[in-house]
Design a protein that fits this description.
By secondary structure, the protein is of the alpha+beta class. It folds into 2 domains: about 10-160, JHP933, nucleotidyltransferase-like core domain (Nuclear Transport Factor 2, Chain: A); about 165-270, no CATH class. The chain is built from 11 helices and 7 strands. The protein has a 5-stranded mixed sheet. Strands 6-7 form a two-stranded antiparallel sheet. The chain is globular and about 50 Å long.
């Protein structure tokens, strides 16, 4: 915890959650989990690529589709490992989660778990964290992965999606998510400021699988994507979007959210790398 520069209780909770996420990754790496699955999503982007915001969930995707995937065997290992760091863990099946949490799952073909952890060293609300695990059991074709390593609590290999595939997945969320999530657009700034390429094959297959273009033979390119994202940007209430992301970024960076507007995001859109 000392390596995190935290200036509020919220930031300390976020830091504790991230430490726990890394323990869970290392624990999963002790099994054959990463022979079957790759890490994706905002937490992946933060831990392995340097995204400057915290993320609550741990999202994974099957390397090959398997609708019968079960978390049980892997979580037994996680329970044993986190116990050695002073945690006690409760697991809730997705089927027991109320409908408002179900809506937080973007993809339909997923198997999810909620992990509720109580840190033994804390007695206040600060010690209580909740982490959602989600795996896509029927992923789009065309995704690419690479091998990375976490170095806490010990060196562990983790298969992760490459940045172009992660960006494609994020764009799918931007175009298809049924509710406004400011964190999606914060990540969009991160990707475009780095001129990250887009895995168009993966994005196309994802769009054909779920969302407004589901079960169509849609074919996309840079021009199509630019037009669709432009339409989306113009339609958004940017003050509302900024409110969603505020608690996930450091206090010293929150002032930048006051500048969020359609003009800012249209400018970022123009930075998207053609590929």
């Amino acid at each position: 915890m000392k390596s995190y520069r935290v200036s509020s209780e919220i930031e300390e909770i976020q830091a504790l959650r991230e430490i726990t996420q890394e323990v869970i990754l290392a624990s999963l790496a002790r099994t054959d989990f990463f022979n079957q699955a790759a890490f994706q999503g905002g937490t992946c982007l933060r831990i392995f690529y340097g995204l400057n915001r915290f993320s609550e969930d741990m999202d994974f995707t099957r390397i090959r589709g398997n609708p019968t995937f079960a978390w049980k065997a892997y979580l037994e290992q996680v329970i044993r490992d986190v116990a050695s760091y002073g945690y006690t863990m409760e697991i809730t099946d997705r089927q027991e989660i109320d409908s408002s949490v179900r809506l937080a799952f973007l993809k339909d073909d997923t198997v999810g778990k909620i992990l509720q952890l109580q840190y033994a060293g804390k007695t206040s609300q600060l010690g209580k964290i909740k982490i959602k695990l989600e795996i896509d059991t029927n992923p789009p074709l065309g995704g690419t992965n690479e091998l990375k390593y976490v170095d806490f609590p010990y060196i562990s290999p983790v298969v992760v999606q490459t940045p172009d595939t992660l960006f494609a997945g994020k764009i799918h969320a931007l175009l298809c998510r049924k509710y406004l999530k400011g964190r999606d657009w914060y990540d969009f700034i991160w990707y475009t400021s780095r001129k990250t390429a887009v895995n168009y094959q993966y994005l196309e297959k994802a769009l054909q699988r779920s969302g407004p273009w589901e079960q169509t033979d849609i074919q996309i390119d840079h021009h199509w994507l630019h037009d669709r994202l432009s339409e989306r940007i113009i339609s958004i209430d940017w003050k509302e979007a900024a409110l969603d992301v505020r608690r996930f970024i450091p206090i010293q960076d929150q002032f930048s959210l006051d500048y969020w507007s359609k003009e800012v995001f249209l400018q970022q859109l123009d930075k998207m790398k053609r590929s």
